[in-house]
């Protein structure tokens, strides 16, 4: 089975695609780069998920925030954005911004102050983060793109959201491969989760019902240093 993909012009491994007349790049790190606006878009960091679980007696290694922010910093250092849009559930619960370890709080604070940072409210973190810079909004529109946390049935074209943590499965040479992915059509884009402790929900799950017209969508699957594009009709 041929892989329908192409390298971005700068050889980054990011896959170019178009949404509502805008040229975007799906980076294999799990972020979107919008060159025209010098904007980096990320979703579902779920910072301090480990400490949230620990409070309920389920012990996880307390390193998820450190790993997630290190990955985010790497993307910021590479793309050099002017603006970062975080599409909700940046924190795993409303108190998570207060539980940030000092080193990670300082790191995130520097990120937020050095860039135009926009926090989109999510279902896990509907309240603004405590003592961190940036603008907070439920939704945001820039040109023909409309940013929110949870995708809406019947939304106008150009919606960019997160929330569902999409993943996709493909069969290549008799082998099944599952990866986190962006899922997109000519009308909308749903971002993968970026957090270290976040999983993925298959794009064929009923949770996506009504968001796309049948299988008239494509998955931009995250590989090692490369994003691959597959037609929705070829997924499992």
List the helices and strands and how they pair.
Elements: E1 15-19, E2 22-26, E3 32-34, E4 39-42, H1 49-55, H2 64-79, E5 83-86, H3 102-114, E6 116-120, E7 135-137, E8 140-142, E9 145-147, E10 159-161, E11 166-172, E12 175-184, E13 188-190, E14 201-202, E15 218-222, E16 227-231
Parallel strand pairs: 4-5, 5-6, 6-7, 9-10, 10-13, 11-14
Antiparallel strand pairs: 1-2, 2-3, 3-4, 8-9, 11-12, 12-13, 12-15, 15-16
Structure characterization notes:
The protein has 236 residues and is α/β, with parallel strands linked by helices. It has a single domain (15-234), classed as Purple Acid Phosphatase, chain A, domain 2 (4-Layer Sandwich). 15% of the residues lie in helices and 30% in strands. It contains 3 helices and 16 strands. The strands form 2 sheets. Strands 8, 9, 10, 11, 12, 13, 14, 15 and 16 form a 9-stranded mixed sheet that branches. Strands 1-2-3-4-5-6-7 form a 7-stranded mixed sheet, covered by helices on one side. Helix 2 (64-79) packs parallel to helix 3.
């Amino acid at each position: 089975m041929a892989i329908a993909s192409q390298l971005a012009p700068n050889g980054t491994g990011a896959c170019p695609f178009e949404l509502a007349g805008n040229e975007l790049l799906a980076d294999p790190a799990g972020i979107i780069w919008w060159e025209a606006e010098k904007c980096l878009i990320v979703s579902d960091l779920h910072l301090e998920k480990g400490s949230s679980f620990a409070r309920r007696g389920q012990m996880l290694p307390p390193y998820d925030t450190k790993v997630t922010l290190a990955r985010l910093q790497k993307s910021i250092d590479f793309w050099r954005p002017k603006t970062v849009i975080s599409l909700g559930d940046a924190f795993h619960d409303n108190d998570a911004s207060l539980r940030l370890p000092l080193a990670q709080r300082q790191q995130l604070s520097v990120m937020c102050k050095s860039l135009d940072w926009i926090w989109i409210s999510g279902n896990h973190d509907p309240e603004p983060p405590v003592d961190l810079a940036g603008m907070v909004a439920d939704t945001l529109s820039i040109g023909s793109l409309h940013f929110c946390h949870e995708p809406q049935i019947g939304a106008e074209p150009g919606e960019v959201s997160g929330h569902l943590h999409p993943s996709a499965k493909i069969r290549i040479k008799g082998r099944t491969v599952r990866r986190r992915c962006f899922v997109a059509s000519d009308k909308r884009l749903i971002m993968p989760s970026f957090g270290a402790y976040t999983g993925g929900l298959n794009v064929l799950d009923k949770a996506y019902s009504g968001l796309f017209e049948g299988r008239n969508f494509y998955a931009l699957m995250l590989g090692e240093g490369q994003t691959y594009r597959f037609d929705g009709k070829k997924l499992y």
